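Why should sequence recovery work at all? Because a backbone constrains its sequence more than one might expect. Tight turns favour small or flexible residues, buried strands favour hydrophobic ones, and helices have their own preferences. The token representation captures these environments compactly. In the example below, the structure is given first.
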């Protein structure tokens, strides 16, 4: 009986396709979204991290010694050239000035008397009415009186200078910092730093460029007919653009051999003191290149260990052999799509897109969604 059942089962498998060996369905691939890369003309900015610097900055040092008797400014405020900032005890310098002034008057009187005597003896000597020795002494006295007067005049100048130096004034328009001394502190000549003052309008902005971009910035600097002011703007924060434009002031004399970079200084008006020395805004340089650029969405770029990649989709022909157990040996051809990693070089970011400088070409199809499930050579389904 068992043999009969076995024979029936074998015969049934020969006539019913359900007993044939089943082929696994071909893999469907990772579902993704693709776009075709196109070149287009774009307006964008090259961005550089920068540092604001004062065009002039000095430490205020006393030129006469004494105790601080007056402080006349608000720390961190804007001060004008010649404005009174500090006062050093003036009493001794005022006394020295008065003494020098009195000595000059005495020297002036002595000189006047010596001149009158010399003039009188000059006439008598011509008429041989005076002894030669008396005449010579009169001439010597006159020369001494002139020297004493000159010395007294110089002493008065020195006393006046010291008296003036007892008042410390702003050397130029700028912003003054925290005072390093207080009332009653002793200020020593050339040693005690009273304060630091830096110019604030205009303000310098320094940034670094690669040496291969030097010619571009030199052309901007040398082209007097070019509207250079429109090329340079400052980004103080993500959405805060500085209201004034800048221009090139200085291109450094040499390239740093260790980094291959050069320093460029821009100058920006700063009438409202919005810029302070030491800030780190972003310099935006309006790119004048009209060549079409490859612009793709930011989400299409994958970063790996500091390098950037995009997945490029490529069509491939696949060959499926005949079904197992079938007498047919004819292969079946079909098309499938695979994603391959291409290393790219990024250009300027133009949110939400980025310019690609190299690594892909116009007409390539790249993956913009579904990247998380991909690896190099993954089969995909658009």
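From this structural description, the recovered sequence reads:
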């Amino acid at each position: 009986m068992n043999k009969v059942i076995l024979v029936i089962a074998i015969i049934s498998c020969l006539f019913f396709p359900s007993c044939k060996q089943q082929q696994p369905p071909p893999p469907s691939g990772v579902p993704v979204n693709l776009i075709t890369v196109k070149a287009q003309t774009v307006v964008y900015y090259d961005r550089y991290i920068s540092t604001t610097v004062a065009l002039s900055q000095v430490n205020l040092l006393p030129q006469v010694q004494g105790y601080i008797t007056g402080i006349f400014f608000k720390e961190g405020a804007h001060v004008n050239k010649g404005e009174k900032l500090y006062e050093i005890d003036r009493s001794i310098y005022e006394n020295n000035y008065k003494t020098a002034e009195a000595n000059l008057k005495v020297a002036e009187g002595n000189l006047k008397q010596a001149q009158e005597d010399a003039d009188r003896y000059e006439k008598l000597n011509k008429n041989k009415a005076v002894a030669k020795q008396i005449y010579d002494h009169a001439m010597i006295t006159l020369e001494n009186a002139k020297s004493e007067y000159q010395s007294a005049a110089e002493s008065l100048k020195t006393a006046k200078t010291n008296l003036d130096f007892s008042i410390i004034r702003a050397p130029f328009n700028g912003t003054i910092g925290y005072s390093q001394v207080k009332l009653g502190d002793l200020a020593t000549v050339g040693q005690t730093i009273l304060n630091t003052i830096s110019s604030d309008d205009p303000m310098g902005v320094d940034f670094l460029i690669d040496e291969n971009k030097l010619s571009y910035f030199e052309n901007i600097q040398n082209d007097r007919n070019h509207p250079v002011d429109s090329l340079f703007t400052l980004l103080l924060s993500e959405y805060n653009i500085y209201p004034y434009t800048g221009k090139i002031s200085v291109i450094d004399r040499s390239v740093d051999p260790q980094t291959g970079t050069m320093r460029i200084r821009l100058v920006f008006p700063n009438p409202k003191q919005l810029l302070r020395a030491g800030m780190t805004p972003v310099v935006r340089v309006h790119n004048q290149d009209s060549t079409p650029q490859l612009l793709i969405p930011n989400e299409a770029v994958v970063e790996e260990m500091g390098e950037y990649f995009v997945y490029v989709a490529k069509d491939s022909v696949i060959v499926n052999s005949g079904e197992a157990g079938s007498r047919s040996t004819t292969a079946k051809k079909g098309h499938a799509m695979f994603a391959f990693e291409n290393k790219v070089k990024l250009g300027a970011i133009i949110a939400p897109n980025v310019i690609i400088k190299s690594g892909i070409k116009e007409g390539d199809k790249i993956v913009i969604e579904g990247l998380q499930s991909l690896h190099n050579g993954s089969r995909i389904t658009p």
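A few observations help interpret the result. The chain has three domains: 22-42+291-381, 46-56+198-286, 91-165.
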